[in-house]
Amino acid sequence: MHSDTERLSAVVARPPLSPRPPAFRSAAGHVPGSVVGSRYRLLHCCGGSPSLEFWHGRDVVTDRDVGLTVVAGGSSRDVDVDEVFARTVWMCGMDSPALARIVDMVDTGSSGVVVAEWQSSCSLETAASVVPTRSEAARSARPLTEAMRIAHRSGGVLDLEPTSRLRVGAGGHLYVAFPATLPSADRFTDVRGLASALRGLLHGATGVGAPAW
């Protein structure tokens, strides 16, 4: 009998072909190939919001892939980057399969960049094609649910919106691929984000447009 996450693991390794959705437009004009924070090359945009951009990138110094959360890019800051860093730094000490490990935080002057380890993974939209039941979706989200519970107990917030910051890893579990907590985020943000992610796994729609750069 196949495990509940076995098919998810397979689709992460060999994601199915699907139509490319409309591209997310960077307010700061970031495009694949550009470098942020002096050492992180942008490879592929995975989504975003008015204040955030989520990128699969590469550290040109170590030649390793990374997940990049670009905060408030552009000539004027939409949010206080220092406050974002202050609300995010506690995650560096959190050991959970539901959270990509943070390896760097960079203030570029016009934006902030939270750098996390990159994992073999796929988007919620891709994972939805192989998670047809409620029980399978719930099992996929279990580590993230536990991480959220631990965070809230300690006074922290994961900030699970928008759901394009979430991906499904090779183990079949939902995780925060692009960590960064905005000043406006609270416990309700996490609850809404988790609920939206579960709907996305079940129905293939999260309400957040995915980019195709």
CATH-defined superfamily = Phosphorylase Kinase, domain 1
What does the main sheet amount to?
Answer: 6 strands, antiparallel
Q: Report the uncertain regions.
A: 16-22, 207-213
SS element count, helices: 5
Rg over C-alpha atoms, rounded to the nearest angstrom: 16 Å
Mean pLDDT: 85
Shape: globular
Organism: Rhodococcus gannanensis
Protein name: Peptidoglycan lipid II flippase
Keywords:
213 residues; alpha+beta; Phosphorylase Kinase, domain 1; six-stranded antiparallel sheet; three-stranded antiparallel sheet
How would you explain this protein's 3D organization?
By secondary structure, the chain is α+β, with helices and mostly antiparallel strands. 44% of the residues are buried. The chain has a single domain, classed as Phosphorylase Kinase, domain 1 (2-Layer Sandwich). It has five helices and nine strands, in the order H-E-E-E-E-H-E-E-E-H-H-E-E-H. Strands 1-2-3-4-6-5 form a six-stranded antiparallel beta sheet, with helices on one face. This is Peptidoglycan lipid II flippase.
Characterize this entry briefly.
This is Peptidoglycan lipid II flippase. This protein has 213 residues and is of the alpha+beta class.
What's the topology here?
Elements: H1 6-13, E1 35-36, E2 40-48, E3 52-59, E4 64-71, H2 81-88, E5 102-107, E6 112-117, E7 121-122, H3 124-127, H4 134-153, E8 166-169, E9 174-176, H5 187-203
Antiparallel strand pairs: 1-2, 2-3, 3-4, 4-6, 5-6, 7-8, 8-9
Helix pairs in contact: 4-5
